[in-house]
Amino acid sequence: MQLHLYLQWIFSVFLAILCGGLIGYERQNKLKSAGVKTHMLVTLGSALIMIVSKYAFMDVLHFNNISLDPSRIAAQVVSGIGFIGAGTIVLTKHNIIDGLTTATGLWVSAAVGLAIGGGLYVLGIISTIGILLIYTVVSHLDRHKITNQTGMNLFLDFVGNVPSIQELQDNLKEHNYPDADISILSCHDKVFYLRLHVTVNSDHDFKHLFTYLANNPQIHRIDLE
Fold it and tell me: What is the per-residue pLDDT across 160-183, written as a single tens digit (0 to 9) for each?
């Protein structure tokens, strides 16, 4: 019986790590503040807390006048994850609230960890697949909506100097974005906050532009208007 429990716990831990890693990988590819490690730790921690909540006090159940509620410890995850999620929500220099989706994703990832820790493996796996589908499908629909417009604004955190900003604009014009226009909004500690206005004609154009900007080591953040 003990061996069966040990194997179940080990499986739960590794499944929670895997599910968290898959969710975090998608977020990290989108240059979000919470990536693979954060999501893996959230799902792992939630699963561990659920396991502890279920099994850690089994040895005292035979005592008289002792009653335990196994949900009390696990319930603290729901409120505690809010503090972590709040750290991913920021108001950018462009007065844009960013990070709500990532914060919600962390909250749902904690729920996945709780489900796995509670032995609801199928539910945890299906929920992980659902999260990934929401991230990818809805993001694709949002991009399609944006790229059907004549123009769009991107806000960039750029580490460099004025000549390198001009070089970025020139390179964009050479990469099939002839109307690319970069404006400097502010500068703090050698970090320039830029607005890039550019016209994209298709979803492929948007993907190409986003990939090009994401691969630039001087660009540390990309926000859509």
Answer: 888 888 888 888 888 778 888 888
Q: Are 11 and 94 found together in one domain?
A: yes
> Does residue 182 share a domain with residue 163?
yes
Q: Domain containing 95: what range?
A: 2-146
The pLDDT tens digits of the residues spanning 48-92 come to 999 988 887 777 666 667 677 767 777 788 778 877 766 666 655
CB 33 within 8 A of CB 106: no
* pLDDT for 20: 93
Three-class HEC string of 181-207: EEEEEEEECCEEEEEEEECCCCHHHHH
Residue 27 CA, chain-centre distance (Å), reads 4
* Cβ atoms 39, 85 nearer than 8 A: no
For residue 112, the tally of other CB atoms under 10 A from its CB is 28
**Contact (Cβ atoms closer than 8 angstroms) between residue 37 and residue 45:** no
Angle, helices 36-55 vs 71-86, to 10°: value is 160
Beta bridge partners of 197: 153, 181
